[in-house]
Amino acid sequence: MKEELCKAFCEDLQIREVPAGMAISTCYDWMGEPLGFYIVGPDQSGRYRVEDDGTSMPLIESAVSDLDTPTRAEALQSMLEEYGARYDEDRGELTTLPLRIEEIPKAAISFVGLLLRLQDLILLTPERAASTFREDAAQAIRAAVGDQAKIRENESISPNIEFPADLVIEAENKAPVAVYLAMSEQRVLEAVIAQMAALYEAKVPCSVIALLEKDTSVSRKMLRYAANRLAALPIFQGDQKAAIQRIEREVRGQYPTYH
After folding, report:
1. How far from 8 is each of 88, 100, 206, CA to CA, in Å?
2. Do 188 and 89 reside in the same domain of the chain?
3. Is the dihedral of CA 192, 194, 197, 199 positive or negative?
4. What is residue 97's DSSP assignment?
5. What are the residue ranges in the chain where pLDDT is below 70?
6. What residue numbers bound the domain in which 93 lies?
7. Do 245 and 137 reside in the same domain of the chain?
8. Which of 19, 88, 123, 165 has its CA 20 to 30 A from that of 180?
């Protein structure tokens, strides 16, 4: 089987025996390290499995923060089906189904393809990355305030105000808070217009927040303009917990008292 594996990959393939079977190291790069996998077996039925070392998915999760959002979960499931693999969440391992010995070389090539593709979960296309930001942010906000407030999605804070907010959060006996998930200057400007319309036209007591995806989402000029007009302008990327806490304080109207 070593000869067949070497033919399937290249001469740089390194194979060594380990107690569970064989450890394979390839010439491909996996987040700065050589990409490797294991061939485990045979089991009692004489079958083998191709597996990773149990670190691939934790590394992916640490890089993207959350794999449970619909966008990433769908992408992951699609990849697993395409490459005939599965993710064992209990063991934290990626693995193939049981294989006959003659199936191993082809399955090993496919498994390497899967590991290389998994890195795409970090480098999503701009459209999918934008979708992921919205999902991540909305999920975090719901987790923080959802049990103590009513949350409406894609609605205006008042019928007379254009530009619906991504989330309108209404806590009991508190003014509603409209959250605009902003990945561009246009969305921030829409939040500012909504805030001004609520204050001076509809005369609706409320707070409008633009949650920026990152600190480079808008120019410094727009950042200054919006910061002086909105209730808050937190930045999600790099400081997610504090950004969500800032929204939570606005929703609950709770601020620390200093003596």
Report:
1. 26, 17, 64
2. no
3. negative
4. P
5. 1-12, 31-32, 62-69, 71, 120-131, 254-259
6. 2-121
7. yes
8. 123
Asked whether residue 135 falls in the same domain as residue 243, the answer is yes
Count up the domains in the chain and report the number.
Answer: 2
Same-domain check for residues 149 and 196? yes
Q: What is the pLDDT of residues 137-164, one digit of tens each?
A: 999 999 999 788 999 999 988 887 878 9
Single out the residue in 68, 93, 121 at which a domain terminates: 121
Helix H segments across the chain?
2-8, 56-64, 70-82, 104-118, 126-145, 185-200, 220-227, 240-252
Side chain identity, residue 255: Y
Q: For residue range 40-76, what is the model confidence (pLDDT) as tens digits?
A: 999 999 999 999 988 888 777 766 555 666 767 777 8
The amino acid at 186: Q
- The token duo for 34 is 């050589």
pLDDT for position 259: 39
Same domain, 159 and 114: no
